[in-house]
Design a protein that fits this description.
Layout: H1 2-7, H2 20-46, H3 64-91, H4 94-99, H5 104-115, H6 129-153, H7 159-164, H8 168-195, H9 197-205
Helix pairs in contact: 2-3, 6-8, 8-9
C-alpha cells in the first residue's frame, strides 16, 4: 500500500520543462535558421562586404539564384514560426516569467560563476541572468535581421524601412552583423546543451 502511494504521488511525476509548442517551434526555428545562414553565406559570396568569402562546402544553393530561392523559402518559415513563437510567448506569459527581470548585478555574478564553472544548472525551469540576457537579446536580433533583410530584398517598395537602416548599403552591414551575432549565439547555445545534456533532453521530450 505504501509502495503504491509513493509510486503514484504527484511529486514523483516527471516535471514538464518545455511545453510542446516551445519544442516544436524551437526545432522549426533551428532548421530555418540553419537554412538561412548557409544560403545567406552563398548570397554573400556573390557580393562580399569584406575581403573574405565563405567556403562552398558550408554554403547552400550552389550559386546566387539557387541560394536566393533557399533563403527566401527559409525566410518565410522563420518569419511565420517566429511570429507564432513571440505571440505564444507573450500570450502565455512565458517571456515575462522566463526572461524578466534581468538584473545587471545578476548578469555579472552569473557570468563570473559561469567562467569559474560554478554556475548551477540544477533547476531547468528557471533561467539564470546570463541566459535571460542572451535569449532576450537573440529575439531582438532576430527581429532586426528580418527587417534588415526585407529592406535589402525590396529597397524600393520598402524604401522607408531601408531609409530607417541608413540606406541599402548600411542595411547589408546590419544584416551581416546580425547573422554573425546569431552564429555566435548558436555556438554558445550548442556548447551549453552538450555540457548540460538534460537541457537538450528536455527540449526533445519536454521532461
Amino acid at each position: 500500500m505504501s509502495t503504491l502511494a509513493v509510486t503514484n504521488h504527484p511529486a514523483q511525476a516527471a516535471k514538464v520543462i518545455q511545453p510542446a509548442w516551445v519544442r516544436i517551434m524551437h526545432w522549426v526555428n533551428a532548421v530555418a535558421i540553419l537554412l538561412m545562414i548557409t544560403s545567406g553565406w552563398q548570397v554573400y559570396n556573390a557580393s562580399p562586404l569584406f575581403r573574405f568569402s565563405f567556403p562552398g562546402a558550408i554554403t547552400l544553393g550552389g550559386w546566387l539564384a539557387g541560394a536566393l530561392l533557399w533563403h527566401f523559402a527559409a525566410m518565410w518559415l522563420l518569419m511565420v514560426n517566429g511570429l507564432l513563437y513571440v505571440t505564444f510567448g507573450l500570450a502565455t506569459g512565458r517571456f515575462r516569467n522566463k526572461l524578466l527581470p534581468i538584473k545587471p548585478s545578476g548578469v555579472i555574478a552569473d557570468t563570473k560563476a559561469a567562467l569559474t564553472f560554478k554556475l548551477s544548472h540544477d533547476d531547468l525551469t528557471r533561467y539564470n541572468n546570463v541566459q535571460k540576457l542572451l535569449y532576450a537579446g537573440i529575439i531582438l536580433v532576430g527581429i532586426v535581421i528580418v527587417l534588415s533583410g526585407l529592406s535589402i530584398w525590396k529597397p524600393v517598395q520598402l524604401q522607408y524601412l531601408t531609409a530607417l537602416f541608413g540606406g541599402y548599403d548600411v542595411a547589408r552591414y546590419v544584416h551581416f552583423f546580425c547573422m554573425a551575432a546569431i552564429v555566435a549565439f548558436l555556438v554558445v547555445h550548442v556548447a551549453l546543451a552538450l555540457l548540460v545534456p538534460k537541457s537538450l533532453r528536455a527540449m526533445i521530450i519536454g521532461r
